Structures are given as C-alpha cells and as structure tokens.
C-alpha cells in the first residue's frame, strides 16, 4: 500500500478503495500514519468494535490518546458498552444515522483546534444495514460537514462491495479516490 498523507497540508477528503483482504491493514496503516505525524484521528467504525480496534492499535504502537472513536457496532453486537471505554461514543446501531451524525459532530467539537483526520471504516459495511441511497445521503452530509469545518477525511470501502451508482456518488463527494490495491501493484 503506497497511499501517504505526508506532504499534504490541504484538508482533503479521500475515498480509499481496497480489497476485503486488505481493509484491516489499510485502517491500521492510515491511523498509524495520522497519529505518528502528530495528528488526531476520529475513527467512525461500523466494521470493527471499539475493543478490537483498541487492541489492534495498541499492538501496532498507535498512540491511543490521539484516537477517538464513534462506534456504531459494539452496542448492536453485544448490547452494552465496555466500562473502561476512553475517547469513545457508542451509537446503538449502524442504521441509526441521526445518532451517528450527532456523535461525529460532538466529537469534532470536543477536538476543535486540533489537526484532525476523520477515518470512516467502512462504507461497504453500511450496505449490510442500509440502502445505497441512505448511505449516499449520509456520506454527503458527513463530507459536507468536514469540508465546511476544514477537516480531512478518509472513507474506506471495499471497491467490489459497492454498486456502481454509489461508487460514482462517493467519488463526487471527495477530492481524491485511491485504489490501494492498484497503488500497491504499481
């Protein structure tokens, strides 16, 4: 994977496409790079629960004090949130876009003044819970909010998991589309 955030001071929105096999590694690499360069990350997860990500990030040497989570899967999967959750807001389910939007806005406010990257993992997983139309509307809302607030954003997706119309719409919401598997090959 050759995608790099270094050398860019622009607040850009990226759509990163990967295979299902490389999605977890893409998440780890991106969050590691964000935090290692002194920035903060807000990880919006509909894919991996907070405890799993926290463990993975810790193993990778990622500074967890620089990572905040909006977790839309833990409550849905196990019915409760961990007692010792730090820097995390838990949404009831990936279907609850209103609460997810509020949690994102709240986290952005709490972190105001920091150089923030919002990492959305993953657009593809949301298709399990929502229609492409609803996902597109939500991603448009999030991307518009990030642009207005001058915050960088990264939307992770499994390329072959998106229908062509959704992929086209997502492409129009971001500044740059990067196929991680293609950039790794060439």
UniProtKB/TrEMBL annotation:
Q: Name one Pfam family in it.
A: DUF7504
Q: Which domain of life is it from?
A: Archaea
Spell out the protein name for this chain.
KaiC-like domain-containing protein
Source organism per entry reads Methanofollis liminatans DSM 4140
């Amino acid at each position: 994977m050759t995608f790099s955030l270094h050398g860019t001071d622009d607040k850009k929105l990226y759509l990163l496409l990967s295979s299902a096999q490389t999605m977890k590694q893409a998440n780890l690499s991106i969050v590691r790079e964000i935090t290692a360069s002194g920035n903060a990350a807000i990880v919006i997860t509909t894919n991996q629960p907070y405890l799993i990500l926290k463990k993975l990030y810790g193993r990778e040497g990622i500074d967890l004090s620089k990572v905040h989570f909006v977790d839309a899967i833990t409550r849905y999967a196990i019915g409760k949130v961990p007692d010792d959750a730090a820097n995390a807001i838990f949404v009831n389910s990936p279907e609850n876009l209103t609460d997810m939007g509020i949690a994102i806005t709240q986290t952005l406010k709490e972190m105001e003044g920091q150089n923030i990257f919002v990492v959305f993992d993953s657009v593809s997983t949301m298709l399990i819970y929502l229609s492409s139309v609803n996902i597109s509307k939500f991603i448009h809302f999030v991307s518009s909010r990030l642009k207005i607030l001058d915050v960088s954003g990264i939307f992770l997706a499994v390329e072959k998991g998106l229908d062509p119309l959704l992929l086209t719409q997502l492409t129009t919401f971001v500044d740059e589309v990067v196929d991680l598997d293609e950039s790794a090959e060439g």
